[in-house]
């Protein structure tokens, strides 16, 4: 028996999903080890080995593949713990990261402090030399300026350098020359070139991507090296792939070359899992872990990729799967502010010490403590009974809130519960209602260990009609990693329009993209018959400021003049879909061309062959438990079902609880559930 593994490191627990050669999947969890994530990575593999009754050494030998979603780069950016970066720009343009793109911040945000640039002014150097928009050298590069910048960086203790020169995406000669000099003058210092990391015509997004990439390069490289060393010490001989932010996996060498693609990569796997679990066209994915609640959406059964992800006040620069996060997890801390209002999050108890009920030194009330007090979470069956919770400690923590608010313990616990729910509803509305999407028309897929506890009330608030509690909900991102593809995105700048379409130039660009994508998949070991390529272009109406991305099909990776009307019409339709207007008589400009290279992995679809036996006989609860009900103001007894004992077609009606080893689902009145053939609980609200 051989195994494929996906490990996703969360704020509280590290999830490990294991698929055997028959496609049978099991989930394991172990506490996250902040600051030493590689230890938690190995710990959860040992837990999995124990689950299969194997010694760790024997289990390691049977693992063919490990896929991994890392939070190292995201944490570094969020906590502002990146390395010192030097930035080289074209003379006269030293304020690109200061000026940004000037987007509107919001109708009512009329007074804002101007944010500091990502790279401070004293670490930003300029060099003489100029390339124009057609790739012509207007002024030669000043090698002396480059050497002077290198000397100043050396004196300032710079740990990485980003280079962003004007129009390097058309002619990279100057950027390449700068790198050659810097590598000689600053040996061992990583250099990021903007035309390589994010080849697009917009200076700010190209250069901010280079700066962010440089700032996390040593951090990601060090983590990968530590992880590889830890696996080598365990005699792991299989393949290791890392999650990227475009919804797929990358080999280690590619991630080291482009570490920016590891940013926010873990949460992007949850929508990939939802894509496989449901055929619904419009899906909302909510993943509530120990620290954050991550929400994403699928439209027309397609992942939404955004070019406008933000890290604090700066754009990430590169496109990524659109996932929004708020500080609303099981470990989110509740407190009463100076005005007497209850707040929940964004501060979290994390993995150390964790919620008070963990008994590891935490004393502040968290969402998990509230759920224990309410009776929804069974302290004796947390993680299938492997981790006992202390109800008395949870009660003592929640009593602090009760005293401040002047209410009973149960009322305080419910206030924490519902406040957390409304925080998550606001995040869902951000990615649906504010984007012109009615959540009532969407199917909700739960992810993370805590979402199923909260989804019933959130569904009623949002007016949802249906939602799913997947069998592997507590490791939804890890499940996404097990079944996702190897993916990479490449782009090329070539400005043309429908008024004078440059067919030959476009085809040359598409050919280069195809060759690059083919090389990436070949390096990743993907057989030719398992390679797929998806094309798109960035387009705009003439005189518009910003482009939109439009997918198109290309036979053999080439276009002809006869394809132009189809490209233009596709742009008009996409523009109308996004902005509700189209201008058929306006000139359409094409600014850049993109390729998504996709490689199918062996065994990633095996899980579909494992279906549940049909439910035989009437389902029976394993127990009954008292839950505090706000409507009646008292504790009421509800049936508790064991999910592992339910067969396909099994039906149950709320109010009730459904327990699995790694999560608890709470169904309210008028919520009726049915187990599908894969063991997922699909709930309809009547």
UniProtKB/TrEMBL annotation:
Q: Where is the Hydantoinase/oxoprolinase N-terminal domain?
A: 5-185
Q: Which GO terms describe its molecular function?
A: 5-oxoprolinase (ATP-hydrolyzing) activity
Pfam families xref list: Hydant_A_C, Hydant_A_N, Hydantoinase_A
- Its signal peptide is none
The protein depicted here goes by the name: 5-oxoprolinase
Ranges of residues in domain Acetophenone carboxylase-like C-terminal: 505-677
Q: What cellular-component terms does GO give this entry?
A: cytosol
Q: Where is the Hydantoinase A/oxoprolinase domain?
A: 206-489
BP term (GO), one: glutathione metabolic process
